[in-house]
Amino acid sequence: TVITEQCPLWMATPDQCPLPDPYWAFYWPGGQALTRFILDNGSQFRDKSVLDFGCGCGASTIAAVTAGARTVFCNDIDNYALLATAINCRRNNVPMSTIEFSNENFLLSERKITPIPDAILLGDMFYDTDFAGDIFRLLRRLQLDKPEMDIFVGDPDRHPLNEEVHRKRIGVQFERELLIDYPLPGYVTREHYGFSSAKVYRLLFV
Q: Which string of DSSP letters, residue by residue, matches 88-125?
């Protein structure tokens, strides 16, 4: 359940779309890279507890379950994203017994994420500097509480993740370990401001 180049909704205007702001319906480049990385490196996720933060269409969730994750916690503030994730899991014959769903906004909620997962997945979440700052501060708190937690990010190198001026403005310091760089197909490059590849990083907050 995603909108592809062959779908009429690909070029639809907001008034032509039956659902509000269906960002979850597009398979964004960072999510594609992160999903491919999980499938190619399943041993890093096997028997782990995983949080798919901003799960969107659920592709990374499907990959994590397929890789043998012990539990996957799908989180998105859009209920349609959670519904799409559940539908896509069923369409791909992914067992639902290890998956939990939540629409809680952990950037605003006073409730902590407990238990802290072994790994967090974030695809295409750093499209805005202020929003990225909120996410970085949440990730830093979680990693301080559980230093061995892995943070995997799929992104085509948007400004908050890549440029030092944005990171200084945010005021959160972290190191990036580049794990892999995937080339993007032409139609994805055209739709995403000329980004020609999507990278997967491991983040370590300092």
A: HHHHTT--STTEEEE---TTT-SS--SSPPSEEEEES-
Count other Cβ atoms within 10 Å, centred on residue 10: 13
Strands 119-123 and 71-75: unpaired
pLDDT tens for each residue of 114-124: 899 999 999 99
Phi and psi at residue 63, to the nearest 5°? -65, -40
Q: What is the pLDDT of residue 11?
A: 55
**Cis bond before residue 185 (omega within 30° of 0):** no
Tokens linked to 90:
């069923």
With a CB cutoff of 8 Å and minimum separation 6, the contacts of 148 are 118
**Could you tell me if 64 and 52 are in contact, meaning their C-beta atoms sit under 8 angstroms apart?**
yes
pLDDT band, residue 92 (cuts 50/70/90): very high
Residue 5 has pLDDT above 70, yes or no: no
Measuring CA to CA, which residue among 82, 65, 53, 9 is closest to residue 155?
A: 53
Q: Please report which residue ranges of the chain form alpha helices under DSSP H.
A: 29-40, 59-66, 79-91, 129-145, 159-162, 164-170, 186-191
Mutual angle of helices 79-91 and 59-66, in 10-degree steps: 40
Sorting pLDDT into bands at 50, 70 and 90, what band is 187?
Answer: low
State the average pLDDT over residues 71-93: 93
